[in-house]
Specification:
By secondary structure, this protein is of the alpha+beta class. It contains 18 helices and 18 strands. The strands form five sheets. Strands 5, 8, 9, 13, 16, 17 and 18 form a seven-stranded mixed β-sheet that branches. A five-stranded antiparallel β-sheet has the order 10-11-7-14-15, with no helix packed on it.
């Protein structure tokens, strides 16, 4: 820095000489170095350096009565006013204090620049950096290992620190391992609501087809061979039927809902309960669908997707909601059917009733179906439920796993059988013929396992209807309650055409009465929540770090800062060394 100061002094002296030559005034009275550039070849270069320095830090050159201190620094003793002498305004220049303040700030900046230059020249060594870190580290006990004290004491602190570090690393491993298991907890809450949406009710007679209609069709030969109802064990029947004709026969052989399966339907709500007269419903309130085996089934309250208004209930009670009376026609049961009953599936309008278990109600009983709504919210991957969505080709509404299963089954039938079944939405292929149905379609439907189909993630939000069934004998022996039945009803007409015993037997074998209702206006909300998320992991790590080593998470950052700071200083030292070597080579 002494070379730098001498150069500055020479430039100031040169400026004084130029000032005297121009106007005869004095810039700096005392000079210790000649200003001749020929005597000092470096004067021009130094002058440029000092000029740049003065422009950067606002260094004032309007100096007078200056003298040099012991360190070679030029001190300002008097600041001369540019316009006039110092006799005005009490003998002091108007801008004296402002210029003096500027000079003081410039001096501070110059000293800071010299200090930074010294830091650049004298970079800290690795040992110096490490010693400074040890003295200021927040890792308790760490500084005792490297302090100047007894060796035994340092060894004891080292062993203790290492042991606790090992314990911390083990706990850290366990915590991280638990985090990547992605555990979750399931919470269940009850929410009471003023109104509930009524679900879709899908009905299928367990007697798939009417035996008399099958016998009068081209399927009679297959029926006589015992191959109806269809089963995966059957093979080639020996003859074939076109797909369109087969579908037509199966649909016509299914029990129609109008004036056959459905005998009475009534809807009761708060409004109808006031008058005591229920709202009658009928076949027009049901929609048709084909099950996996070609049978025609029916759905009540299918929703807006079928152009029907969704029903809602705002009242609870055993005698409210939906009541159905159905005749199963058990006398026309197929030979291969072992059970008589009605299969019922209670589901959301967005769900498909196909491949859902449901429950079965028996004839001769009045079945009461209590319904409860359960809304489930699942977690997305990487949690175990792995809920999500996958694009569906034919289902354009909200994603549902049941619809995804149907599309997967449809694609499998399409690729293997090169035809389509009655339940498939793809219209690009013809219906499967009789031979294709028995040899390809039915075996694929039987083998399809939706549980192993990983291409269909579960729904992130589902609505389920949990049912609870209770039974009561309907018109038991002797037939009681007949006087309570309204005139002109189907049951009343049966009584007039049959003897008492015959009527009772028919009721026990064919008539199904089922009633759906809500016991309470509430929803059960089941939510999955992460039980060990990232913030809990950080909390555990911070707690273990503080307990074992008396540190915090920021202590780990200190090690990173130590590494980066050391690399920074070493790179600067290397850069400085190369610069000096280069200057030496040039000289």
């Amino acid at each position: 820095m002494s070379q730098f100061n001498n150069a500055a002094l020479r430039v100031l002296q040169r400026a004084q000489t130029m000032k005297q030559q121009n106007d005869g005034s004095v810039l700096v009275e005392k000079s210790t170095e000649p200003a001749d550039e020929q005597k000092d070849p470096l004067l021009a270069e130094d002058k440029n350096k000092i000029t740049n320095f003065s422009d950067k830090y606002g260094f004032p050159f309007a100096l007078n009565n200056s003298e040099e201190n012991g360190n070679g620094d030029v001190l300002n003793n008097n600041i001369k006013k540019q316009n006039g002498s110092g006799s005005q305004n009490g003998g002091k220049p108007a801008k004296e204090f402002d210029v003096r303040d500027r000079f003081r700030r410039a001096g501070m900046k110059a000293r800071l620049a010299r200090r930074m230059e010294k830091i650049v020249e004298d970079r800290m060594t690795v040992k110096q950096i490490f010693n400074r870190y040890v003295q200021n580290s927040t890792l308790h006990g760490f500084r005792f290992i490297f302090m100047k004290t007894f060796v035994i004491r340092r060894i004891a602190w080292a062993i203790l620190t290492c042991a606790l570090t090992a314990a911390f690393l083990k706990e850290l491993y366990d915590s991280v391992d638990l985090f990547f298991e992605y555990p979750f907890t399931t919470t269940s809450t009850i929410e009471y609501v003023p109104s509930l949406k009524f679900p879709a009710i899908s009905l299928c007679n367990m007697n798939n087809f009417d035996a008399n209609r099958i016998k009068n069709s081209k399927l009679k030969k297959v029926y006589d061979m015992g191959m109806i109802p269809f089963d995966h064990k059957w093979g080639d029947p020996g003859y074939d039927l076109p797909g369109e004709e087969l579908i037509s026969i199966l649909r016509n052989s299914s029990q129609p809902i109008k004036n056959d399966l459905l005998r009475h339907c009534e809807w009761k709500s708060r409004e109808t309960a006031k008058t005591g007269v229920p709202t009658l419903c009928g076949a027009q309130n049901f929609t048709k669908f084909s099950n996996l085996f070609g049978q025609t089934c029916y759905t009540f309250n299918p929703g807006e997707m079928f152009g029907k208004t969704e029903l809602h209930l705002n009242e609870t009670g055993l005698n409210l909601a939906l009541k159905l009376e159905l005749d199963l026609k058990a006398n026309d049961t197929l030979h291969g059917v072992q059970e008589v009953g009605l299969k019922v599936v209670v589901h959301d309008q967005e769900e498909s009733p196909l491949q859902q278990a449901g429950f079965v109600v028996s004839p001769g009983f009045h079945t009461f179906v209590e319904m409860n709504v359960r809304r489930t919210e699942n977690l997305k991957p990487p949690y175990a439920t792995k809920c999500g969505e996958t694009p569906l080709k034919y289902w354009k509404r909200d994603y549902r796993q049941s619809q995804c299963f149907l599309e997967q089954l449809s694609e499998k039938v399409k690729s293997n059988c090169h035809c389509r079944a009655g339940f498939m939405l793809d219209k690009s292929l013809p219906y499967c013929s009789l031979n294709q149905t028995l040899t390809c379609l039915i075996p694929i439907v039987h083998q399809f396992d939706r549980k192993t189909n990983s291409k269909c993630p579960v729904d992130c939000e589902t609505i389920q209807y949990i049912t609870s069934l209770s039974y009561a004998r309907f018109l038991s022996s002797p037939p009681i309650g007949m006087e309570l039945l309204r005139d002109k009803t189907y049951i009343k007409k049966l009584q007039t055409t049959m003897h008492t015993e015959e009527f009772q037997k028919y009721i026990e074998e064919n008539i199904v009465v089922v009633q759906f209702f809500y016991q309470e206006m509430k929803e059960e909300i089941v939510q999955q929540e992460p039980s060990y998320d990232f913030y809990k992991l950080v909390g555990d790590v911070g707690g273990q770090l503080g307990l074992m080593l008396g540190a915090s998470v920021l202590t780990l950052v200190e090690f990173v800062d130590l590494f980066l700071f050391t690399m920074y200083h070493q790179l600067l030292r290397l850069s400085r060394r190369r610069k000096r070597e280069h200057e030496t080579d040039v000289m």
